[in-house]
UniProtKB/TrEMBL annotation:
Transmembrane segments: none annotated. Pfam families: ACP_SdgA_C. SMART domains: PKS_PP. This is Carrier domain-containing protein. It comes from the Eukaryota. Residues 50-127 form the Carrier domain. GO terms for molecular function: phosphopantetheine binding.
Amino acid sequence: MSAGAGANLLSPLAYYGEPKPPAQWMKRELDQSQLLTPAMLFHAATTPEERSAVVVEALKEKLARALDLEPDYVAAGKRLSDYVLDSLMAVELRNWTRNDSGTTMTVFDTLCVAAIAEVGELVVAKVANTTSNK
């Protein structure tokens, strides 16, 4: 019997093959979007429109991930409540906006705005208001 024929089928080597040295699997190519976080993009944006777009796209990504949808299925023109968000998800979104943009939104702000696109505008307005008061 050859060495391959007698291999234990439950062994990781049976599924993944011989381990590769770290240099080979660590050198995968990353595009720029994988290197920049939404927070970095938000703070690098130069106009309110760019900042709002960053918030909206990141919010669509988070919502899609939480609901196990493709991000393209999350429409910026729909309300967050249209996606049947519970209060825990609203709290998570509130914490995310605080951590990434440095502004505080209420759960009410998150759930009661007219559309996802307006969440981006609200975050930008609150950041502008916070920085102008300092």
